[in-house]
Amino acid sequence: MQVFLLRRTLGFLATILAISVIVFLVMNVLPGDPSVTILGIDSTEDARAALRAQLGLDDPLWQRYLHWIWGALHGDFGTSYFFRVPVGELIVERLPLTLSLAAFGTLATVVLGIVLGVIAAANHGRAGDWIIMLLSQLGIAIPAFWLSMLLVLLFAVKLRWLPPGGFPGWDEPVAALRSLILPTTALALVQSAVLARVTRSSALEVMRLDFVRTARATGMTRGRILGRHILPNALVPIVTIVGMQVAAVVTGTIVIENVFYLPGLGRLVFQSISNRDLFTVQALVVLFAAIVVTANFLVDIAYVLIDPRLKGRLS
């Protein structure tokens, strides 16, 4: 187990390093001059040259990367061109909201997806199965931003049950939680559709095995068979999709936060790209990529915990 963890950890670190190199190269070969973005098109060439020298934009590319990655390892991601504050401060300020939205979205996705998938499998071939599969197909087909607007029109504009957007801050916890209900719903309804279909397929596959027939023959109730025999043995493909859904939920916050005007990292990404805020975009893209890679890393660990026989195949 120690060898497996060591290999996975080294692979995780190598992947993060490769991502940082790719992101840095892509961001620094894009057309345009950041000094023009900061100072404006009416600025003089001398002012632009002075700013480029101050920001180190005239240094060789490899030297700029080493300087940036060394600072990032110490929590220094540079200074935002647009906000004129350290990028680390922007991330720390907006990270709690994005993590909260991602956590609520992931929890709702997992609960809703697994419950609906198990219900569909237990009612295979019946009306409940058809309805859930139809709804899941609609969930896969509907874009998150369009579903978000529909939720706003229904629950905020027409019914006036929930706020249409914005975030009052955690100083008002009830209002803050209310403002996250619609964004969480938009994330969960789209992502749980895939998980429900995978859970149903995996559960149906396990239901056809001999030990499930034996359990039925002994007189065990359907609920007990589902909980003790079917669901535990169907977890490997479910965990795979859950890992992918976590990544999808985290990256999906970029769209959702802009639709609901939430001041999180997703909205910061959009603002930084619009203003070609180089250091901020670099840090945020690497951060989101690191979250995705971390989710996959944890899925690999979960595989071994669920079924130790997979350790040899994964190593």
Q: Could you please describe the fold and organization of this structure?
A:
It is a single chain. The chain contains 14 helices and no strands. With 315 residues, it is mainly alpha-helical. The longest helix has 36 residues, at 87-122. Helix 7 packs across helix 11. The mean pLDDT is 81.
Key phrases:
single chain, 315 residues, mainly alpha, 14 helices, 78% helix, 0% strand
Briefly say what this structure is.
The protein is mostly helical. Helix content is 78%, strand content 0%.
Rg, nearest Å = 24 Å
Biggest pleated-sheet summary:
none
- Which structural class is indicated by helix and strand composition? mainly alpha
Share of helix, binned: over 70%
Number of helices: 14
Instruction: For the record, give the distance between the C-alpha atoms at the N and C termini, rounded to a whole number.
Output: 10 Å
Mean pLDDT: 81
Run of helices and strands: HHHHHHHHHHHHHH
What is the general shape? Answer: globular
- What fraction of the residues are assigned to beta strands by DSSP? under 5%
Tally of DSSP β-strands: 0
Low-confidence stretches: none
